[in-house]
Design a protein that fits this description.
Length: about 250
């Protein structure tokens, strides 16, 4: 790993929708380790209690789990409004929202498949970006987590490929529209090692993805799509963010 000094994000307010998932857990851990206050919405009280039990006691005071449905435009707007009210603002958002879908060719999907794997996830991402991006501080960053399936077709998982392609374009359009006023990143991933998936040694880990997001938050790097498939790409990013770190 890099010799980069740990990023200090003390006082930063970070919203992580999807933070109770396998990738989200690594993101949450790294922001807490950097000293940030982290808000994680979940629609399940039992899931929130289970997740909180995984964290170190010294980070609990800065960890805010809220039971909230953020999958609609109104729900996402309310989440951002509540976070702003209780913490005084939102500095960064990392959105590892969604999961894998497989089992049918495009010719065999039904309405329920379409609504769940494409419409539902795309709507949730759009709702969060729409609500949160204008509310971010000028030093903050919005990072959406996107899989390689955004660029490569996966037979039998076409809805994932289509939805991830939509997210990749969402990041590009949002970055172009924001210009210099906000920074919007896509963290583009291959397979990921996590607490629930052992994976292969060369895969990037959930906590390494968190390290990348933290480094982007603490830097002045402009909007971009960031490939993260292993240690070499992470090291390259950390070197770039170290050179562009905020004073």
């Amino acid at each position: 790993m890099s010799n980069q000094q740990p990023t200090d994000l003390s006082g930063r307010r970070v919203l992580v929708p999807g933070g109770t998932g396998a990738v989200g857990e690594g993101v949450v851990r790294r922001y807490l380790a950097a000293g940030a206050d982290v808000v994680v919405p979940t629609r399940s009280r039992s899931r929130s209690d289970e997740f909180a039990a995984l964290l170190d006691d010294d980070a609990i005071a800065r960890f805010h789990l809220v039971v909230h449905d953020y999958t609609t435009f109104a729900g996402a707007a309310d989440l951002v409004a509540q976070t702003t009210h209780f913490l005084g603002g939102v500095d960064d958002v990392v959105a590892p929202i969604g999961g894998w879908w497989a089992g049918k060719t495009l010719a065999k999907i039904d309405q329920r498949d379409w609504d769940s794997a494409f419409v539902g996830l795309a709507t949730t991402h759009m709702a969060m970006l729409r609500a949160a991006l204008p509310a971010l501080s000028r030093t903050g960053a919005y990072s959406v987590v996107v899989g390689d399936s955004s660029a490569y077709p996966v037979p039998g998982s076409g809805l994932v490929s289509m939805e991830q392609s939509a997210l990749a374009m969402m990041q590009r359009v949002a970055a172009a529209e924001a210009g210099d006023s906000r920074r919007v990143f896509a963290l583009v991933l291959g397979p990921v090692r996590s607490r629930v998936v052992a994976g292969e040694p060369e895969w990037i880990s959930a906590e390494q993805i968190g390290a990348a997001a933290v480094a982007l938050s603490g830097s002045t790097l402009p909007s971009a799509a960031i490939p993260l498939h292993g240690t070499a790409e992470l090291e390259r990013l950390l070197a770039q963010t170290d050179a562009a770190s905020r004073p």
